[in-house]
Amino acid sequence: QVQLVESGGGLVQAGGSLRLSCVASGGTFSNYAMSWFRQAPGKEREFVAGISRGGSSTSYVDSVKGRFTISRDNAKNTVYLQMNSLKAEDTAVYYCAADRSPYWSSGDYWGQGTQVTVSS
Predict the structure, then answer these.
(1) Is 56 exposed, middle or buried (0-12, 13-18, 19+ CB in 10 A)?
(2) pLDDT of the chain along its 120 residues, tens only?
(3) How many CA atoms lie within 13 A of 67 on its CB side?
(4) pLDDT for res 21
(5) 3-class secondary structure for the chain?
(6) Cβ contacts of residue 62 below 8 Å, gap of 6+?
(7) Cα distance between residue 115 and residue 86, in whole Å
(8) Residue 41: which region, alpha, beta or left (left: phi > 0; alpha: psi -120 to 50)?
(9) Distance in angstroms between the alpha carbons of the first and the last residue of the chain
């Protein structure tokens, strides 16, 4: 059973940056593909970015391409989401997810979420 704990959310002005972190415990981190999802008020949860087990493959939703970067440090059991040029529409609760597979999917394990609020 993998436990995931996100951190790094907060309030930021439009155009600013935040870096989210997600620390995993209870499993072999390098066995899991990792991803970030988000859920805005009144909307469904959506995929934001994913990274393969070894970190060589990544994927992003179109709306964040060129602004967000997902990365992982398997030695620290941590996945990151660097968010630059933030927009008001990026406001959401951001969730970290782990998949027991080489590539990201719908998430077998989830964190509790961290709030990101972007003021315009």
Answers:
(1) exposed
(2) 899 999 999 999 999 999 999 999 998 999 999 999 999 999 999 999 999 999 999 999 999 999 999 999 999 999 999 999 999 999 999 999 999 988 998 899 999 999 999 998
(3) 17
(4) 98
(5) CCEEEEECCEEEECCCCEEEEEEEECCCHHHCEEEEEEECCCCCCEEEEEECCCCCCEEECHHHCCCEEEEEECCCCEEEEEECCCCHHHCEEEEEEEECCCCCCCCCEECCCEEEEEEC
(6) none
(7) 14
(8) beta
(9) 40
Phi, psi dihedrals of residue 32, rounded to the nearest 5°: -120, 135
Q: Which two tokens stand for residue 24?
A: 């995993």
The tokens of 61 are what? 């939703």
Q: How many residues would you count in the chain?
A: 120
Structure tokens at 92: 């959401």
Which residues have C-beta within 8 Å of that of residue 13, sequence separation ≥ 6?
118, 119
